[in-house]
């Protein structure tokens, strides 16, 4: 317990850093995932191509490589931002590809006749998607979206290698102070467990309220 009690503020700072990264990157991933899922099913060919390229590139790019591209590449084009913002961009964009595919799979479960009926009533594509298709698709994609956001929380550990304050990065300071590395990582693991169980509990409540009965 000494590792935790003697360095509670350090652990707390790392824990809050990971929570902030998770919250902001999750919000970005959900927004981009929704947009790209809309592009993937849009009647406009150029939108479908853009959505397909976005998903294909990001899903097949190692997250660490994406971090390097964002952290080191964007400043070369004159975009200089805090490392925390770059980390949110990398995590959010990466996870958005998986959110997109989860949403698209949910959209594909909605019977085609639902969309055709909406269009026969004079609804536009955006109206059909937002008022008819997505509300039904949302019920089926709650579990996979929750799983993707849990993965995002764990992936945020990579940000510590780029001078971003987060939970895993606390081991460097504690190791330099001479604390037992095993117990250092045990308490780090407990912190991640709290975050992931919190996300899991939230999506469990959402699934009970809105999910499809099985």
Automatic annotation (TrEMBL):
It is a multi-pass membrane protein. Signal peptide: none annotated. Gene3D superfamilies: MetI-like. The chain crosses the membrane at residues 15-37, 49-74, 80-100, 181-205. InterPro entries: AA_ABC_transptr_permease_3TM (IPR010065), ArtM/GltK/GlnP/TcyL/YhdX-like (IPR043429), MetI-like (IPR000515), MetI-like_sf (IPR035906). Belongs to the binding-protein-dependent transport system permease family. HisMQ subfamily. This is Amino acid ABC transporter permease. It comes from Streptomyces wedmorensis. The lineage of its organism: Bacteria, Bacillati, Actinomycetota, Actinomycetes, Kitasatosporales.
């Amino acid at each position: 317990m000494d590792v935790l009690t003697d360095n509670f503020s350090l652990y707390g700072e790392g824990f809050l850093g990971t929570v902030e990264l998770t919250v902001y990157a999750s919000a970005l991933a959900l927004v981009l995932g929704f947009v790209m899922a809309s592009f993937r099913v849009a009647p406009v060919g150029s939108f479908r191509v853009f959505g397909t390229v976005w998903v294909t590139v990001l899903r097949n790019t190692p997250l660490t490589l994406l971090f390097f591209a964002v952290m080191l590449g964007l400043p070369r084009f004159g975009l200089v931002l805090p490392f925390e913002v770059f980390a949110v961009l990398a995590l959010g964009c990466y996870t958005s590809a998986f959110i997109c595919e989860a949403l698209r799979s949910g959209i594909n479960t909605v019977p085609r006749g639902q969309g055709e009926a909406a269009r026969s009533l004079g609804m536009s594509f955006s109206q059909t998607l937002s008022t008819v298709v997505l509300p039904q698709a949302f019920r089926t994609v709650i579990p996979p979206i929750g799983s993707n956001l849990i993965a995002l929380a764990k992936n945020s550990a990579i940000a510590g290698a780029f001078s971003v304050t987060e939970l895993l990065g606390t081991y460097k300071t504690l190791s330099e102070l001479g604390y037992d590395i095993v117990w250092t990582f045990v308490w780090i693991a407990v912190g991640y467990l709290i975050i992931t169980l919190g996300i899991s509990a939230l999506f469990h409540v959402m699934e009970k309220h809105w999910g499809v009965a099985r």
